[in-house]
């Protein structure tokens, strides 16, 4: 019995030295440092953006990017980590051979308004709120570099008309900055 007590005492001493004497005390872990990846690292059309450029243009800080490319069309979606909306989508289709009339007749949505001075032809469309989302603003244009570009911003639910009007101006300004005649985005 005495040898058992000595062995039990030795185990208790080893556990105390190892820091296991209080199972309710959590072990201190080193701090975690999260490194934000640049939007461009998502690929696709995200290579044309960085978070600071988007925030400067429209006043919204995004932190998550997802991009893809299929054939000659690249896309990018930006979101915040806090909620599904707001989000911003950019699509760029290269090698589009269309004239302004074809663009207006076949690409521009029926209820869209023409935008003069944006590419060779452009439009804007404000959409109504959808299930679980707020209203949206879409701006599309045919660039002189034979690209069809589209920006679409979707609000979180509850956005009022003043916010939509203000964001429409911001999205249009962003589109004008991104529009170029050499096929390279001004956002780079």
Element layout with pairings:
Blueprint: H1 2-17, H2 51-58, E1 64-70, E2 73-79, E3 87-93, H3 100-107, E4 113-114, E5 121-127, E6 136-142, E7 148-154, H4 161-178
Antiparallel strand pairs: 1-2, 2-3, 3-7, 4-5, 5-6, 6-7
Q: In CATH terms, what is the architecture?
A: 3-Layer(aba) Sandwich
What is the 3D shape?
globular
Distance between the termini: 78 Å
> What fraction, in percent, of the residue positions are helical?
25-40%
- CATH topology category name: Protein Transport Mog1p, Chain A
Order of the strands making up the biggest sheet: 1-2-3-7-6-5-4
**Unreliable runs:** 1-8, 181-188
Strand content: 15-25%
Order of helices and strands: HHEEEHEEEEH
- Total domain modules: 1
* Estimated radius of gyration: 27 Å
Assembly status: single chain
Mean pLDDT rating: 85
Number of strands: 7
CATH class: Alpha Beta
Question: Which terms summarize this structure?
Answer:
disordered C terminus; 23% strand; alpha+beta; 188 residues
């Amino acid at each position: 019995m005495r040898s058992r007590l000595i062995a039990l005492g030795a185990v208790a001493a080893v556990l105390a030295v190892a820091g296991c004497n209080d199972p309710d005390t959590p072990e201190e872990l080193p701090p975690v440092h999260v490194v934000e990846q640049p939007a461009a690292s998502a690929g696709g059309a995200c290579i044309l953006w960085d978070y600071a450029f988007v925030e400067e243009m429209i006043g919204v800080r995004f932190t998550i990017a997802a991009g893809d490319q299929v054939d000659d069309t690249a896309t990018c979606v930006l979101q915040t980590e806090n909620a599904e909306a707001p989000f911003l989508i950019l699509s760029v289709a290269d090698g589009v051979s269309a004239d302004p009339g074809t663009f207006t007749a076949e690409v521009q949505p029926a209820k869209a308004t023409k935008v003069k001075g944006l590419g060779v032809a452009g439009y804007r469309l404000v959409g109504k709120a959808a299930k679980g989302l707020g209203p949206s603003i879409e701006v599309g244009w045919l660039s002189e570099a034979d690209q069809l570009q589209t920006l679409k911003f979707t609000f979180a639910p509850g956005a009022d008309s003043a916010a939509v009007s203000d964001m429409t101006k911001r999205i249009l300004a962003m589109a004008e900055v991104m529009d170029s005649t050499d096929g390279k985005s001004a956002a780079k």
